[in-house]
């Protein structure tokens, strides 16, 4: 069944309002009507619900019962992706794919060699893309896409809350597997640089912060490919898949 996210607390018999974007999708794309069933996701829990009203940009549903057969797509450890914003529209694809692969949060970053720009409209579009990808891939959370910040600021925060792994094309072979074996089961942050790679100063900043530089294989990946590759590799190496 179609899935939507809501922020309201849910329980059987409670009627909830859906987000305008979801209402438009249900009414215009899926041509749904009152009485149709959907799945409502709230606070990492899935509920069966029935549409009670639906218009172009407004829809309501009444919660029926827990959806006990719901299969979550969440990874057992939260992973935040610090991604240098690439040029053009490539960040759209990055957001979509890493949400499908289980990223818990996305922090766009600005590096010395970043070519891509960011703006309020782009951020809002990335947030919409993340929401749609989470719905499509059976996530129980809607991953956050945060305000873009400088690499140094993002690194300073990430080092305090997570283990940080930086994708670097010149890192030692097998360094990702080695780093993961030394990690505990706590949260991870993975960092992907811009088209022109990191500067020597940025790499030293990462080392000084306790981050590990890791290899993603013998080929040189584009920045829009690296984060998805790294997430998949971590999930496989940790035995989550």
What key phrases describe this protein's structure?
241 residues; alpha/beta; Ribosomal Protein L25, Chain P; Alpha/beta knot; 2 domains; seven-stranded parallel β-sheet; five-stranded mixed β-sheet; 7 helices
Which consecutive residue ranges, at least 5 long each, have pLDDT under 50? none
Number of domains: 2
Quote the CATH topology of the largest domain: Alpha/beta knot
Look at the helices and sheets and give the structural class. alpha/beta
CATH architecture title of the largest domain: 3-Layer(aba) Sandwich
N-to-C terminal Cα separation, in Å? Answer: 24 Å
Descriptive account of the structure:
This protein has 2 domains: about 5-65, Ribosomal Protein L25, Chain P (Beta Barrel); about 80-235, SPOUT methyltransferase, trefoil knot domain (Alpha/beta knot, 3-Layer(aba) Sandwich), CATH 3.40.1280. The longest helix is centred in the middle third of the chain and has 17 residues, at about 120-135. It contains 7 helices and 12 strands. Helix 2 (about 90-100) runs parallel beside helix 3 and helix 2 packs parallel to helix 7 (about 225-235). With about 240 residues, it is an alpha/beta fold. The model has no long low-confidence stretch (mean pLDDT about 95).
């Amino acid at each position: 069944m179609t899935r939507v996210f809501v922020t309201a607390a849910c329980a059987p018999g409670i009627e909830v309002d859906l987000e305008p974007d979801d209402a438009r999708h249900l009414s215009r794309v899926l041509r749904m009507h009152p009485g149709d069933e959907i799945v409502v996701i709230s606070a990492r829990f899935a509920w069966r619900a029935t549409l009670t009203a639906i218009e172009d940009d407004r829809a309501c549903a009444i919660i029926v019962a827990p959806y006990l057969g719901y299969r979550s797509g969440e990874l057992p450890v939260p992973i935040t992706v610090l991604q240098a914003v690439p040029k053009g529209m490539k960040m759209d694809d990055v957001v979509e794919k890493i949400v499908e692969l289980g990223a818990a949060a996305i922090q766009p970053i600005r590096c010395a060699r970043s070519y891509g720009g960011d703006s309020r409209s782009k951020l809002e579009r990335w947030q919409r893309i993340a929401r749609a990808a989470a719905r499509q891939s059976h996530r129980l959370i809607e991953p956050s896409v945060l305000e873009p910040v400088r690499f140094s600021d993002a690194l300073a925060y990430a080092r305090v809350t997570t283990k940080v792994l930086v994708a670097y094309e010149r890192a030692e072979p097998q360094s990702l597997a080695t780093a993961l074996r030394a990690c505990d089961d706590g949260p991870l942050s993975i960092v992907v640089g811009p088209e022109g790679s990191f500067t020597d100063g940025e790499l030293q900043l990462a080392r000084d912060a306790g981050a590990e530089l890791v290899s993603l294989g013998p080929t040189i990946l584009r920045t829009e490919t690296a984060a998805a590759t790294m997430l998949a590799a971590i999930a496989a190496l940790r035995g989550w898949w």
